[in-house]
Structures are given as structure tokens and as C-alpha cells.
Amino acid sequence: MRSVLGFRPTRRSNRTSSLEGYPKVEEDCANHPQNKQPAGAAVMELFHHAKDKRHSVEVRDSASPTRKRTSKDSPRLAPVQPATLEVGMESPPIVFYGPPGQSTGALLSGQLILTPHEPEISIKTLEMVLQAKVTTKRPVKHDCPECVTKTTELFRWKFLSEPTHFRRRKHHFPFSYLLPGHIPATSHGFMGVVDYLLSAEAITNFSEPVNVTRYLKVQRALMPGLDKNSTRIFPPTNLVASVILPSVVYPMGEFPVQLRLAGVVTKSNDGQVRWRIRRMNWRVDETSKMISEACKKHVAKVGGEGKGVLHEDTVDLGRDDIKRGWKTDFDTEGGLIEVEFNAGIRPGSSPLCDVESPSGYSVHHNLSVEIIVAQEHQLYKCHKNPVPTGSARVLRMQFKLVVTERAGLGISWDEEQPPMYEDVPDSPPGYAKMSDYEGEALPEEPLEGLH
């Protein structure tokens, strides 16, 4: 009652109030006639002030006093898979020997290894599929996966016919397949990509599927044969060029080129007109083509179903200029110029082997040879100073090159396999004629001496 009458208390309590530390209401101001409020209103003001201060308190991290603790700071643990899958290959490198129309294919064999991480797990299905994937780098619609990649299933293995329990150890599942020889080899070019992959999947009862993918490198090797002879004619002149090239060319190394130019001399009444080589150069080009087909959603952009857009790109793999080294013979009938040089693919140019895919992807190589010849007139009276006529020509030739991998021994799978069961007879061959022995008795030898 004394505090209500306005008297100041003369003694402070020793107890610590729950509102200690908050600003106190000055009783002098409360007793002022203009600021006088009821006692209940003053108490409610204190509680509201305490509530505002509690909301302004921030919980700070001890390591970073200025950083707030958020849910992103807590580490996220990846889900632990109950098992792992591995693909172990047992077959040699996959190489097709011979052209696509004659190759017998290559054997693919290995084991799919399942390793559980728990004492016992249950696998519902375990399958693996061999796929051929063709990816175009110039699709009709860039953000459409179906326009970018075309996937073809070659074979599928189903290792389990019913749900099976597996304990914690390695479980092996063998597989094998004969790859046909007409399919294209693996290629990673500027216009497209051809890949082969094994994709396995194990489905359990209580967790996400367990997957594994392994890419396969498929190569094609052509056996070297006889050299190729090519002839080019350059009318209206009498010049005829003959070129000898190897049947196959390898991505690394050089290959010889033999060139013979005939018909360089034409006789007249007062002398002869002849052609002389001034300069020549060669170049190896790689041409990649890709027909980009559209999916069913974007087929209207290419004009209808079954149509596509052809993209072509040419890359220079090597070149050189030849300014000397040829042999000239103007005394033979018609004249003759011979030259031999080495051409090749520049190291580090990442060449591709020849590929022809039914999906529209192809890679081919060409050798281009350019010869600059100048005409001159040689009089019979003066054999030392031929007179240039001012006429010159550029002879351009192009020859197809077959770039392939080295064949090595070139033994395909069907040539190194053991004999078939139907080729093995049931018993040793019989004797055509037998006769009784007539003569002295043969001495008997002890068996101990035969050791």
C-alpha cells in the first residue's frame, strides 16, 4: 500500500528477480500527473519488453562468431548400398579381322561379380545388357536426349530366375557372347560417337538398385594386301599420272607413295615441247559425315519420318611440300618423270579409323596430290637453253586411303578354337589290313627293364 501512495521504499530485496537486467520504470515518472498509469499496465509493459529481447537473441557458432548455424552445415551421408557389382573381362581385346562383309566377329567373355556388404541380402533380379550407343554432336534438337543418342540393345543376360539370397562373399556369374563382324567399330569423332557398353543392374527388396557400367573398345583390323595402282588422265594434254599406294594405312607412321608422270614430251618439226615439274605437295584429309535423325516429337523439323540432316566436317591430318627429288627422262618415248616420297599422318592429330555405320555416321580418308608443271620449248639446234612458253598447269589428284588398326598375327576366334565334337571320331582309326606273324618266337623282355 505504501508503494501505491507514492513513498519510495528504503530497503531492496536480496532476491534476484526474473526481470533483472531489464530497464526499470522510474517511479518519479510514474507519479507525474501526465505519465501516471495503472500498476497493471506497467507490469504488462515489462513482459512485452522481455519478449522482444528474447526474440532478438541469436545463437552463434563458437568457431565462427558471425556465422549462423543452418541446415546446410550438417554433412549429408550418401546411402550405403547393400552390395557392389564388377565386370571382369576374360576375353582378349575385341578386334574384327577383315571387312564388315567378311569378318566372323569376335568373342566376348567375362564374369559379373556380386559382392554383398551385409551378412545376407536378397536379390530379386540380376540382369546385364550389351548396348550399342550412337551419339550425334549436331542433333536436330540439342536439349532432347532422344535426338542426341540412339541406343540399340544387342544382347541381354538374365542371371536369376527367381529371388535368391546371397551371403557376404564374392559371387561370380560368367557370361559370353559372339559379337557380329558387320557392326561398326568404336569411334569418337568430331561429328559423332559410337560406343559399346555393358550395363548390369541388381534389384533388391529394401534399397535402391545396384548398377555398374563398363565401356568396351571394339576395333577393326584389315590385313594388308597387294598395292593399289591408280591412273589419272589430264586432257587436253598427253599427261598421264600413275600412282602406287599401299592397300591399308595405319594411324601412326608413314607410308610410301610412288608417282610416275608420262607423256611429258611432244615432238615437233624444229624441236620438242615438254613439261617440267616445278613443285608438288600432298595432303591427308579425314572426312566425317553424320546424318542427324529426329525423334518422333521433332520429326516435323526435318520434313517427315525417315529423313535427317547431313553434317560434314573435314580435318587436315598431315601435309608437306616437295620441291626436289624427282627424276626426269626426256629421251624415252613420250618422256617420263618419276618421284617417290613418304606421306603420313601427323603425330598428335588424333586420327580415326575408317567407319561405316548404318545409323548414318561414317569416317573416310583421302590423299590429295597437287603437281605444278610448266611448259618449255626445246630446239634441236640448242640443247642447253630451253625456252619457257609461259604455259603452266596444276594437276590435282585424289586417292582413297583405308586407315585401319594393325592386325598383328591376324588370327580370328574361329581359326584358333579347338576341334568341334562332331569332328572327333568315336574310336581310333582301324587298320586297313591285318596278317598273322610267321617266324621265330620273339624274346620276352622283363617288365622291370622297361622303366
Features:
6% helix; six-stranded antiparallel β-sheet; 451 residues; mainly beta; 44% strand; flat
In words, what does this structure look like?
- With 451 residues, this protein is mainly beta.
- Helix content is 6%, strand content 44%.
- It has helices spanning 27-30, 39-55, 145-148, 413-416; strands at 83-89, 94-97, 106-116, 120-136, 149-158, 164-167, 171-179, 187-188, 192-204, 210-216, 218-221, 228-234, 239-245, 254-262, 265-267, 271-293, 308-322, 327-329, 336-344, 355-356, 361-379, 387-401.
- Strand 9 and strand 10 (210-216) form a beta hairpin.
- The chain starts with 26 loop residues before the first helix and ends in a 35-residue tail after the last helix.
What is this structure, in a nutshell?
The chain is mainly β and about 450 residues long. Helices cover about 5% and strands about 45% of the residues.
CA radius of gyration:
45 Å
Gross geometry: flat
Helices and strands, in order, run as HHEEEEHEEEEEEEEEEEEEEEEEEH
Mean pLDDT: 81
The percent of residues in helical segments reads under 10%
Number of strands: 22
Which regions have little confidence, pLDDT < 50, spanning 5+ residues?
1-44, 53-65
Largest sheet: 6 strands, antiparallel
In percent terms, what proportion of residues is strand?
35-45%
Class computed from helices, strands and strand pairing: mainly beta
Pfam family, one: LDB19
GO biological process, one term: ubiquitin-dependent endocytosis
Domain LDB19 N-terminal: 127-302
InterPro entries: Arrestin-like_C, Arrestin_domain-protein, LDB19_N
